[in-house]
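Worked example 2:
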Amino acid sequence: MFFERVAVIGVGLIGGSFSLVLKEKKLCGHVVGVGRSAANLKFALERGLIDSVASDVAAAVRGADLVLVSAPVAQFENIFQEIKAILKPGALVTDAGSTKRDVVATARAALGAKIAQFVPAHPIAGAEHSGAAAANPDLFRGRRVVLAPLEENSRQDIETISGLWTVIGARVTRMTPEEHDAVFAAVSHLPHLLAYALVNDVSKRPNSAQLFGYAAGGFRDFTRIASSQPEMWRDICMANRDRLLHELHLYERKLKAIGQMLEESDASALEKLFAEARAAREKWIKGEYE
């Protein structure tokens, strides 16, 4: 057992899966959940994802040995402010936020002298479904969890959080907050933005019913992540907008180059681009970039 009492703030896909696997592996004694949706918390309690429901964040954190903040990143400031006075000495706080620079800055401002108790993290295990109903104890198995430790964190606390994720079945790596946000702007935030944009564009066309009616596997695969939670991705895009804008501009240049190939009927250049992309993706699928 790693912790006696764990507080999960936000019992959705990530928070619910985290609490469920902790309970199944008997890694803690009691999990208390808190969130904005009473119906979602009721479902989580009935399904056994959590052991109890708290009335508010302060009540959840009181007496907790570990706190997981798994809410949209725009809510972190209020959450950190609420837990500062309640967090007991020796308790650890970690998170599941998809951005790190803003989360770390918010934590420093809100937690003050207790900043050393916060070990930033990001489990790379999202899905297009949300809520406690989507919780899965195997969600993190074999998936990466990025830790972005602070200079104030003790080595022991970092190893405790790292060890917990390892026991859960995840592969733990480390990045700085700056490196994290740059990487995920390219391989996560931009793809979500593009998927949302394509579906929105098609839906606004006069013949949208016809287009959706004939859309098949390619459209479904490309746009799967547009079924993700809009509020969460709004917050992520706003929090990492400078890095995301950089990636968007790079992608615009690539699209412009492809457009020129089409205008010039340069089939060989287009095929070369496709072949290079296919080869790179196959290497990635095979794990050659690990």
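Residues 261 and 270 are 6 Å apart (CA to CA). The mean pLDDT is 94.
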